[in-house]
Write a structure and sequence with these properties.
Elements (H helix, E strand, L loop, with lengths): L3 E6 L5 E5 H9 L11 E8 L6 E6 L7 E3 L2 E3 L4 H11 L5 E8 L9 H13 L6 E7 L4 E7 L6 E2 L1 E4 L2
Parallel strand pairs: 2-4, 7-8
Antiparallel strand pairs: 1-2, 1-11, 3-4, 3-7, 5-6, 8-9, 9-10
Length: 163
């Protein structure tokens, strides 16, 4: 049984809930040692009807075609096919919600490259909602941002709880 392990509060007071499985997977990619490479993937989940709440219940992990080093992660275009497949097989309930990656710092914050990449994904990406969620997993903390199409910069979400 899946459980919510981290809850982020959005600007409007609604919640983004991160389930235990994706949380555990992301946590396993933390860059603790000096030779650990950045990792990342996409966030998949559900938007709750009659609510602005979101549940992230699945993620992708680095693949063989992704480019990884200590301070960058570039995912391959292959992941787009995963997004379309999840959308179809879920009868249009499993959505692409955004991206996640790691940073070799305790309390992560987006780099200039991250901000440019996020704005580019927001501008060029295909997704149902008018925003995306971006998660950075640090060595100790996990942080999340919500970036709307009409915003000039992402909004740091308040972490309500985390194990």
């Amino acid at each position: 049984m899946r459980t919510t392990v981290a809850t982020f509060v959005r600007r409007d007071g609604s919640k983004i809930k991160l389930d235990s499985d994706p949380y555990a997977i992301m946590k396993g990619y933390r860059q603790i040692r000096l030779n650990d490479k950045e990792a990342g993937g996409i966030l998949l989940g559900r938007m709750i009807e009659n609510s602005n709440d979101v549940i992230i219940d699945e993620i992708t992990v680095p693949g063989l075609l992704d480019k990884r080093n200590r301070f960058s992660f570039i995912r391959s275009k292959f992941v787009q096919s995963i997004i379309f497949k999840k959308w179809r097989t879920s009868k249009h309930t499993k959505n692409y919600l955004g991206e996640w990656h790691t940073h070799p710092e305790s309390q992560p914050s987006p780099s200039g490259t991250d901000l440019k990449d996020w704005a580019n994904i927001l501008r060029k990406g295909r997704f149902e909602q008018n925003y995306l969620i971006f998660i950075i997993v640090g060595q100790v903390m996990i942080s999340a941002w919500e970036f709307h199409k009409d915003d000039s910069e992402p909004y740091l979400l308040h972490l309500q709880d985390q194990p």
